[in-house]
Specification:
Blueprint (H helix, E strand, L loop, with lengths): L1 H10 L6 E6 L4 H12 L2 E8 L2 E7 L15 E3 H9 L5 E4 L3 H6 L6 E2 L18 E4 L4 H12 L5 E5 L14
Parallel strand pairs: 4-8, 5-6, 5-7, 7-8
Antiparallel strand pairs: 1-3, 2-3
Length: 173
């Protein structure tokens, strides 16, 4: 949840001030960088201190800040569930962290955490329809935009995400 807390903290800062965001989740690096890029705030860098990642962000002025753009192509949980129930060949890409994926996932979903997506794109077919899911739709939104920038044309963000998924699941035992 570093992004939610960062946004709330950023709202309290004056333009030009710098915030340090501490996280232990390695995926937070890509999340923070992506959020900064999409909002107009400046990502300054990350320092690792043992297991803790310290991300530094500078709050931009009002005319530099933009509302995060949402990926236009979406599919609801219900629509995806129906496709799966109909036996359609559907590629589901889960961009959550490995622990989240292990506890509950859509059967057959491919796990590539958001922070590793760019280095694992060769495992995906740019001509295949890919349904990207995370916990709530935020990380999958960033993943969809990244995939689209790299030439993937048939990408859809699964809105609501796993937090609202009521279809079949599998999990590690």
């Amino acid at each position: 949840m570093p992004i939610v807390r960062t946004k709330k903290a950023m709202d309290q800062l004056q333009a030009g001030q710098v915030i340090e965001v501490q996280a232990t989740d390695k995926g937070s690096l890509a999340d923070i960088q992506g959020w900064a890029k999409n909002t107009g705030h400046q990502y300054l860098g990350t320092v690792q201190d043992g297991e803790v990642l310290k991300h530094y962000l500078r709050k931009s002025t009002a005319n530099e800040v933009t509302e995060p753009k949402k990926f236009a192509n979406t599919i609801s949980n219900e629509e995806l569930k129906q496709k799966l129930a109909n036996g359609e060949k559907v590629k589901v890409l889960d961009v959550r962290e490995p622990a989240e994926y292990a506890f509950s996932r859509i059967p057959g979903a491919l796990s590539i955490p958001l922070g590793e997506l760019e280095s694992h794109m060769r495992e995906l077919n740019p001509g295949e329809e890919i349904h990207v899911i995370c916990r709530t739709g935020n990380r999958s939104d960033m993943a969809c935009r990244l995939l689209a920038e790299k030439g993937f044309k048939l990408v859809k963000n699964v809105v609501q995400g796993m937090s609202e998924w009521n279809g079949p699941i599998e999990q590690n035992h």
